[in-house]
Amino acid sequence: MDESTQLQQSQLAAVLGGDPSQFETLISSLMSSSNETRSQAELIFNLAKQHDPNSLSLKLAHLLQYSPHLDGRAMSAVLLRKLLTRDDSYLWPRLSPQTQSSLKSILLACLQQESVKSITKKLCDTVSELASGILPDNGWPELLPFMFQCVTSDSVKLQESAFLIFAQLSQYIGESLIPFIKELHGVFLQCLASSTNFDVKIAALNAVINFIQCLNNSSERDRFQDLLPSMIRTLTEALNNGNEATAQEALELLIELAGTEPRFLRRQLVDVVESMLQIAEAESLEEGTRHLAIEFVITLAEARERAPGMMRKLPQFISRLFAILMRMLLDIDDDPAWHSAENEDEDAGESSNYSVGQECLDRLAISLGGNTIVPVASEQLPAYLAAPEWQKHHAALIALAQIAEGCSKVMLKNLEQVVTMVLNSFYDPHPRVRWAAINAIGQLSTDLGPDLQNQYHQRVLPALAAAMDDFQNPRVQAHAASAVLNFSENCTPEILTPYLDGVVSKLLVLLQNGKQMVQEGALTALASVADSSQEHFQKYYDAVMPYLKTILVNANDKANRMLRAKSMECISLVGMAVGKDKFRDDAKQVMDVLMSLQGSQMESDDPTTSYMLQAWARLCKCLGQDFLPYMSVVMPPLLQSAQLKPDVTITSADSDNDIDDTDDERSMPELLRSAKLAVEKGLASGRNESYVKQLSDYIIPALVEALHKEPDTEICANMLDALNECLQISGMHVDESQVRSVVEEIKLVITASSSRKRERAERAKAEDFDAEEGELIKEENEQEEEVFDQVGEILGTLIKTFKASFLPFFEELSSYLTPMWGKDKTAEERRIAICIFDDVAEQCRESALKYYDTFLPFLLEACNDENPDVRQAAVYGLGVCAEVGGSVFKPLVGEALSRLNVVIRHPNAKQPDNVMAYDNAVSALGKICQFHRDSIDSAQVIPAWLNCLPITGDLIEAKVVHEQLCSMVERSDSEVLGPNNQYLPKIVSVFAEVLCGKDLATEQTLSRMVNLLRHLQQTLPPATLASTLSLLHPQQQLALQSILSSHGTVHEAQSLVDSQKFRGLSFKRPQLGCVCLSTKTALEITGRLSTGFHSSSARTPIPCLFDNGSEDSSKKRQVFLLGFFTHFSSNIRKWNISNPKSKFVGVRQRPSGKWVAEIKDTTQKIRMWLGTFETAEEAARAYDEAACLLRGSNTRTNFNTHVSSNSPISTKIRNLLNHKKSLKQNSSTTKSTIKASTIVSTKSSFDSSIDSFLPCNSNIDSFPSPMDNSISYFNGIKQENLGFDNAYRPDMSGCLGGLEPVASQFYPSCSFPSGFDPQLPFIQEGTMLPKNVGLFSDTSHVLELAEFERMKVERQISASLYAMNGVNEYLENANDSSDALWDLPTLCQLFCPS
Predict the structure, then answer these.
(1) I need a surface site. Which of 129, 147, 735, 830 has the fewest CB within 10 A?
(2) Residues 901-932: tens digit of each pLDDT
(3) Contact 791, 750 (CB under 8 A)
(4) Residue 897, H or E segment
(5) What predicted TM-score, i.e. pTM, was given to this entire model?
(6) Running DSSP on this structure, what letter comes out for residue 1161?
(7) For the residues of 1164-1219, what is the DSSP string, one character each?
């Protein structure tokens, strides 16, 4: 034992010895202001706690009971509470029974004898802490009888002490007090009603409210309803007696009750709110008291989750509250400091009343909504605007800005009045009113955009530009610049560009202003303008960048740190806007400055650090591979930043300093990607893969930790997206512990999301629930779906990365995922659950076969789900299982075909909403033909599959299917060629459409098709080939002629079809309602085309067919123009589309490597799945087309996009918008409307033909389809391993055939039914109808027949390219529709017995 240890032991012995003064000295030293003395005392105290806890505890209790020193008694009570608190240093179990008994007795004795109130409260805390640990186990049976004795005693001190302990025990162990609910109700009521001591009544009020909150049963809470008047009377009596401190305590307790149990107040809500408003209106009371009364009412309004809509039923009180808040906004002085603008404090002259009124207006509007608040505002604000006082003008404008977020939907309906009201105040003589008007425009631009920008840019931007000239009022100038930021964020480049000259020039002037706040405002505005105008900002780059670099280099002192940080932000956004070619010359200088700053020592509160991280991410995006040389310098400090501050990449959406939150959230993924590229390309200064691993090890845990702390649903979805991207980049660098942490967090996310959804469902059942609350719940559920979507993406990434190694984690998650398949879940949840299983089946292949018994029943049922996206995911999964499932899938081939039949054969299958499901069903059918041919009647099924080709919606599946067809033709598959090659015309037609289409096959497949066609040209008799080609569309004939020529290529043929010279006229068969070209249009096209032709004959004047309005002339014009274009087609020059980007908006990659496009438009409440694609560019073009169609040509796109009005996406969006419009129009008269995207077979004229598509022993007649036959195959499914006992399971009672062979389910000898559906794939693809088919019973069908006749015209004319003289005669006799169908069976034949 060394000397210091011996000394400590001797000191410990002295402290715990018989002399009490030594221990008192130790306690006194613990309170010493000397660090050295206090540290030495703590060391001795901890030694005593470790070696002799009994003596230490008794010494403290003795000091608490007998010490004459107040500080000593108080410190003893605090130390005892810490020792008896259940944490890591919990001392109670280590004490002997004798010590424990002594402590309990001493504490109760001290409560009775202590006379100092502050020490008594500390004693109550100590007793409550100890009781919460031992009372549930009956470890202190004397306590509750003692407390009930105290509350009935004559001692005010003991009454208060007992209620203080009851209040804390209700918080800690309330369930232990519930058996005494009757006794507690009695003592609470007696005290609140009869006690004259306010301290006792406040303590009782605290105990009542805490106890009510611990009751889970509403009937138990209702037992305390009769206490509410006495509870409110405690407040009013305190105010009447002038005891505002007590009143404020009571208000704080009642506010807590309003937030946690608002329904407890419902029965007496009118009286309670009336009392609070009276307090708020009493100007004689202290501001703090009035503010708390207002807070109570606002808290009630915000308690939507527990009492939705309750406060909206009290409009008279809402009007009074609004008036109170408006009067509070008048409490503002015209402070000279505001005008001098020497500092950035914009609150100069504003009182606490003003601040509270401003905040509460915002909260009130968000909680109650526009339908409640806007009528009140419309009634009160005009009087403020008409008054002569500047304060009232100012208050009205501030109020308008504050309520905009919560009232945006209603205010958009009155946008003209709102904008006019605000803009008129731009010219008010008082600068603070002008400032408030600018502030309102900035807020409205955010909350009412982009409608405000689209409709009023010609009024708002000039007004803001003029405000920037107010040099007498720098705050007005700075705020005008900030408003330009808000306005431009929701602006398209097309709107903003005409104003750029004036706006940029004024902002450059402000940059030279002597006031720092003006300079900072100008910088942020320039950054936003550049970001919104993109390449249009190049014009101003040379003028702007020198200013920005000067600020970056010279703003070095502490006072200018924010200015320098904002210059970084502005430079990086300008660089991104103009592109690296323009930015490259300045980039090196900027990067050098940033790297020097990165290496310098910065203070912890320096904003440069966070701004620099965002700037690095943007510069990385802008410079691409040119950024890689900087990685070795940039990344090490960022590693430390990622380690120390995991939240630096995630910033609040409310931050005033953010230009683009997406940049902040994407910082880490972008930098991680750059680090990986630097290593792969050898530009990381000798660093290897461990460098990427090190970075990944910091970033992924940081994101998971930040995600764990994030309560906001929308931000949570964004963080999940960022995490997914980091996982994709890191790949196999992610270790098992990190995968574990991600999986555990996903479990928590799913659980929390499910809990939130249950809470919303409960809110919808509340008696105060109303339509406005329903709209809010709908928006919250949409955000929730985005969270689930991101969960699915993360799991897909992990499955793709780790394949079978991830399956143990998948099994853990199964109990969380399986309930998502249930019909009570949303379509998006069902789709995500299916996609996760699809990924498991596709990536894990044989290792995933063990899950088929569990999940295939779900998959089969989902094939006929009412939602097309769910159907698509399900039929895709069937295709995967057919490909890799082998013998496990074989028994289900028959049921799979039956399910696919319903999808493919439905009359609406090729509608835009359903075509993706149709294409995937066709692909799945092809895989069954390929991998399970021995289980089907291939001579019938394969031609039926051919009958469905080509597919053109899902470009990924199109490539797979068309490659399969090509392979089958190459090996002369007799079943695809047909007897005597009778299916050859169909095959040639498919090849032609694929060759003429966009991205319907890979380059290799296209070349193979060309070789096959050239082989046919050489081997087939010319007459047979000519007959086959004559059945094709004109543009297909042109393409094949080009290909079959000795010099033609696939690209030339596609360019021939897609050439820009054809824009404005499509060679596709005419559609109903096609546009007829007038003389002027025809001549214009002729002129445009002639300039692009090499042949001199192209300049020969061409006669034109004039528009006389008749159907006959319309046909003639179509035929003439078809022939005209055909004649000169060989001279048309091809065109190409470049791909300038590698990262696109609206596009993300699936784990399978495929790219998906999706568009969301929150203003129109549209979310549309656009399909899966082979490349990111294809997906990006699909997004661009949808974005232009939904938002107009000014919207942000990935490419310069031309939108075809006849494209599948165009039709899909048009149908969706029309459907939503019709739903809105019919909502007042119709309670249920069948969605346009839903496939439902109704009893109509098609009944017989629909029924005939199905197996005769099947009851499938709609989506979803019940199945009610044998369940023998599925009875043996084992669930215990995956924990599905309580999970949703589909009704698979109709699965056909069990384990029996399924070939017998097909009927190769069946014939077409008499009521055969005319909408066959052949007919839809343009073949000719048989004569007198007898199915058209209305004019719409007659029009369809006319369309098919026009198709015949096109084919016949194209067969004789120069036969223009016979057009008129042909049209007059073109009514014979006796041409025969190609002799191919359809799926309906395969499932209908003779």
Answers:
(1) 735
(2) 999 988 899 998 899 999 999 999 999 999 99
(3) yes
(4) helix 893-905
(5) 0.63
(6) E
(7) TTEEEEEEEESSHHHHHHHHHHHHHHHH-TTS--SS-----TTSHHHHHHHHHHHH
